[in-house]
Amino acid sequence: MRYYVLDRGDQLSIDLSQKFHKLAEERGLQLDAESPEIVVSIGGDGTMLHAFHTFIDRIPELAFVGVHTGHLGFYADWQCEELSTLVDYMCGKSDPAPHKPRIVKYPLVELEINRKSGTTSHIALNEFTLKGVEGTVVLQIDINDETFEMFRGDGICVSTPSGSTAYNKSLGGAMVHPSIEALQIAEIASINNRVFRTMGSPLLLPKHHHCDIFSRREQRLMLTVDHTNYPIDDLISVRCQVSEKKVSFARYRPFPFWKRVRSSFLV
Length: 267
Ligand code: NAP
Fold this sequence. Notes:
The chain has five helices and 16 strands. The protein is α/β, with parallel strands linked by helices and 267 residues long. Keywords: ATP-binding, Cytoplasm, Kinase, NAD, NADP, Nucleotide-binding, Transferase.
């Protein structure tokens, strides 16, 4: 089994990372930065976002495992003190052996940015957002090539199901089970009065639909894709849809989504 470890960079995560390498070597796992089968993220959900984007070109060929250095996370289901058990599971030395992981696949959002200066493509694990840098943004939202609304406000957030518990949740979006192949469009502080009107509710689009967001005036925007920010001052439009690609997580034991939601936000 070829593996790679990415940590958050704080002392605890670095120590755990070193401990992981030691345990892995003892049990015959092979460290491979180029073509790992399993990528272990040690830190938090934010660290998983970094791990995902580090291996963005190899997403279909590998699976992720997350170790959380604080409370349990949405992408990180193992705790620090369980490192040895995790390595045992990964090398099939668990009891009862061998322990094959269940590979769960989560939907992703793909976006194409059309600028006067060219076109780029991205994939988001949590979400992408388009926000104003200098105040109100004006964006035309088209769904399946039909104009849906003209948006005025702080911005728009388009999230994946697994990202629905992150920024999207703060915007009043619904939490969506990752088995549902959909993307969610949530408004960030829309202006609604007699003159300007938006739907005001988050929208859930199925896999076979697409959405175009057109910049409708000269404006400086900030595009965020998960943890990364891209300033843009020549945006024409963004096309987004549920990606054909999915991210894989290796589950060596059950980690039900609704249990995670409850333990993160309620108890
Ligand atoms: P950060 O601002 O340092 O941390 C954002 C927080 O979001 C962390 O507590 C992180 O958990 C948590 N998180 C990340 N993905 C999550 C998920 N899928 N479900 C529930 N919580 C999640 O930024 P960062 O660590 O680089 O993460 C970037 C993410 O921050 C973005 O993708 C966006 O979702 C989120 N964000 C949220 C808001 C908001 O809620 N108002 C605003 C901006 C960005 P850990 O502590 O386990 O890493």
